[in-house]
Amino acid sequence: MNSQRLSSAFLTSYKSPHTFIKFIKHFPYFTNQHFTFLGHSTSTMVNPNGTIIFSTVGRTEYGFDIFSVNLSGFLHKSPATLPQEQRLTDGISINFNAQFLDDKKNNQSIVYISERNGSAQVYLTEPGLTRPSLLHSVPESKFNDRPIIKDDQLYYISAHEEPDQLFKSWSALYTSRINGEKGKPTRLTPKNEVDYSPAISESGECFAVASYGSRPWSGEFHDLETNIIVFRRSNPEERFVVCHHGGWPTWSGDSTLYFHRQADDGWWSIFRLVLSNNFDETAELCAPQRITPPGVHCFTPAAMHNKNQIIVATRRPDNKYRHIEVFDVELKTFIPVTMLLNADMHHYSPFVSSDSTSLGYHRFRGESCSGESVIPYLERISSPINTLRMLRINGFFPTFSPDGDFVAYNQGLGPDSGLKVVKSDGSRRWTLLKNRIAFNNDWSPTEKNVIYTSIGPIFATVKATVEIARITFDPEDLTDKCEEVEVDVKILTKEVTGNNAFSSCSPDGKFIVFRSGRSGYKNLYVMDAVKGEFEGEIRQLTEGPWIDTMPSWSPDGKLIAFSSNRHNPKDESKFSIYVVSPDGSDLRRIHIAGSDGDTERINHVCFSADGEWMLFAANMAGVTAEPISLPNQFQPYGDLFIVKLDGSGLRRLTWNGYENGTPAWHGRNDVDVGRLSLGGDVAGDELKGRFDEPLWIKCDF
Length: 701
What we know:
Helix content: under 10%
Organism: Daucus carota subsp. sativus
Radius of gyration: 26 Å
Largest sheet: 4 strands, mixed
InterPro entries: 6-blade_b-propeller_TolB-like (IPR011042), WD40 (IPR011659)
Number of helices: 7
Pfam family, one: PD40
Number of strands: 52
Strand content: 35-45%
Protein name: Dipeptidylpeptidase IV N-terminal domain-containing protein
């Protein structure tokens, strides 16, 4: 019996919400979900509080602004001079995925996405505006994408409505009026279906989206294998699948669609589909035609109206940068654009004006442009829970000092990762370790001068040498007069024991639990937090031919939470939450996803200060945006969630197309973040725009 039929049966039998809630506690499907009935939750949903800090892979380096150029200067065979780029956004935060406004003749007015207020929101800018205008979309949404304005209507992707099941994207197409009365946004995507990357035809009557339909996410993200669906504005409920396997559709006129997908030979390519007036007939009669050749990756197309040319982003085997080019569909030739303007920069998501004269895209703003040139040490992020503060750190594996006044973290994941400490207001930073590979930190809850870290490579085998280190320093050295703090490094694990990492200190400061590969498998061990295994005792906490990792000690000392694949040891890509008592008893799994639990990928578990909630990174919301359109993300489905200890009350905390992870949670609501201001003058690192293309885009077929 499926969940919908079950809920219907229960509703007919139990008229009272309170009786219904009491009953379903005995039914695993509902007790493992964030389920709400007539406003009554299955658990006591008292909002958690405190401050959460986390990292986002690559995001802090983006520095995206939106630029445009006149296309005519590139379409001549021998242009005398190249057109100059014109920046259309103001250099604040990151700005991306824009479209020109069709009713503006100057081709300088755009609607776009900016994260300047701590989440991805829709903005409009045009000549004469001193600052961009925030458009009415969905106030409660923390994610919006791919906006288009047509006939005073705003169309956009939003991810504010929870789908009917886990492991399904929240992304759907909505529309709002931008003039006159601002009512509730209208959802154009059918309930519990998933749409990405909308496009509107020249007349505004026809829509196209890349859609998962009602299917759950398969777990793949290199190529989402969505379908191309079209519908009419006059009848959005009647949708037609015109092509299986395609993404990022774009219209030429009202009858021709271009889209991208990975071809059978491995090259990302652009395909064309010519539609008849009857979409239902088209679905059976028309087949897509590949128009870009193998040997070059082509994606995120933007079609011109009434022309046999399209704009594409390309990755060529002899060039590590993504560039924008014009492709002539008839002549089968490419015309370079951004390669001639900025050879050593990535360029993303081209868009073209309705008169086909102007080309736009986003890229790193560069050192020559005005605007933000500093990556803040800490950045405030919009939180979906008003009692929770959320911060993004420019680094990885943050950990709060006991009083919450400082945060220790690693600058990166490579040889220069080291160990740094920053004030929680983001105003000052110090270096404790440099020129050493370090990762994963835990500040002693009882000592303000002790931090535990792992020294050695982060992604390594069980036998690789990775050591647990106890870092001791004088807190009085954290002053404005010094940048580097003298430390004492005490190694707690023996070199011959292999890979020892991910330590967590007990609340009384006496012991640490950590992951070790000394048995040939990565299991958990407990040892003295001061003496280590050289002078003190060490004991094995878990044992088995699987991976137990990333442990976290609960604030009351009664539980240790960790990630493990012990339910399916052969699959090293799926992890769930387990808890165990410090003496090794009462080991159990925290079931969050119910029958879908074998698809969980949960990492970086930690506790709230009151011990009632667990915070973690997971894949439970699927993929929010087409990953091929973004810089490299190792896990673009990584978002932060919280859940109660019994597996109920699951709540999502982050929304974007990036990988969020390595969170930490401090119980203080009054952690000093007053100096952190979005768009203001803050202390930080130089913004250099260092990020990679998706590493899974191969060019060696």
